[in-house]
Structure formats: structure tokens, C-alpha cells
Amino acid sequence: MTTRRGFTLIEALSVISIISILASLAAFVYLQALRQSRDSKRKSDVATIAQGFEARFLDLTCVNPSAVGQYPGTREAKNGTGRWDWKTVDSLSALPDDCNGFDYYLSAIPTDPQSNPYYYNISSATGLSGKHYRITASLERSLSADENTNRCRLGNTWETTFGGTHYDGCRNGNTVDTPEKLYNYVIGR
Q: Distance (Å, rounded) from C-alpha 63 to C-alpha 48?
């Protein structure tokens, strides 16, 4: 007579444990790939918005000659410090301007994959007003130490040289007050 042997409880639990570990690893890798994909889209969106800023800067059709060679948003009210407030990029399409509206330069303003706003700020330093801008996007991944150092240097330069309002949480050189995951795009003439 032949006896049939089944799986023992220990064998079954071992197989279930191995499958659980593999499933957890697969889910982790998948979520990391999704985050990286969304961050790549954010960087691409910021570069696209920058192209719209550049097209506005180069527009020679403005009625007011002083508006030529300016980035968008330079006619908005300044905050109490005499510097331009940070604005969401989606507010660009409604800017009052004697040049073409921002939607002329960028027909569709990109949106963040998770509906977080992109922010921009225009320089306000004497002689440089409206000649530099900064666009930011919050990334999901953590920045490396070098990226954080560069971000803080950029924030300090943006504030002291170009007259931009501080936004990124850096103070006193390279110290980060709040751990933000901020991607920056700055351009100027």
C-alpha cells in the first residue's frame, strides 16, 4: 500500500513566507519606479514652462517698450518686502499684460502628476527686475547632500543677488531648516 505525503505545515509556511518577501520586494521596486517617473515628468514640466518664459522674454510685440525683454509676471503687486511673491505657475495664464497672454507662448500649462503646484518668482533687484526667474517643483525623492548644498547656494544667490523671495527653507549658508525636496530652474539675462 502506497501512502501519500502532503506538505507539512512548516513547508507550507516557508513557501508562503518566500512568496510574501518576493511580493514585497516587487511592490517596493514598482513604487520606486513610479516615483522616479513622476519626478522625471516634474523636471520636464519645469523645462517646458521655462521655454514659455523664454518665449515671453523674446516677444517684441508688447505695446509698452519697457515690457520687452521681461519675463512674465513683472507687473504684479510686490509683497511688503518690495519683492515679488511666489506665485503658482497656473496663475500665469491670467496675468494682466500688454503683450500676448502667457497661453500664447505656452498653450497648455503642465500640471504636476499629483496636483502639487509649480511655483515661480521673478527677480526684483535694482537693474535686474524682471530679468531673472526661478521655477520650482517638489520632488518625491530625497535630495543628495550635494544637491541640498547646491539648492541652498542657489536659494541664497537668488535672494541676495537677484532680489528673489526666499522659498526653499535654506538659511545661513548651506544649512537646511526643513528637509524639502525642491527642484529648481533659474534663468536670467
A: 26
Non-local CB neighbours of 66 within 8 Å, separated by 6+ positions: none
Predicted TM-score (pTM) of the model is: 0.75
Which residues sit opposite 138 in a β-bridge? Answer: 182
DSSP state letters, 35-90: HHHHHHHHHHHHHHHHHHHHHHHH----SSGGGTT--TTTTSPB-TTSSBPPEEGG
**Residue 43: partners with Cβ closer than 8 Å, 6 or more residues away:** 137, 183
- What does the DSSP assignment read for 130-165? TSEEEEEEE-SSPPPHHHHHHHHHHHHHHHHTS-PP
β-strand partners of 119: 88, 136
More confident residue, 34 or 182: 34
Residue 188 has phi, psi (to 5 degrees) of -160, 170
Encode pLDDT of 30-85 as tens digits: 999 998 899 889 889 988 988 888 888 887 777 777 777 777 765 555 565 666 67
Give the three-class secondary structure for 168.
Answer: coil
Q: Is residue 184 classed as helix, strand or coil in its secondary structure?
A: strand
Predicted local confidence at residue 173, as pLDDT: 47
> What average pLDDT does the segment 154-160 reach?
78
Give yes or no for a contact between 181 and 153, defined as CB atoms under 8 angstroms apart.
no
- Cell digits for 38? 513622476
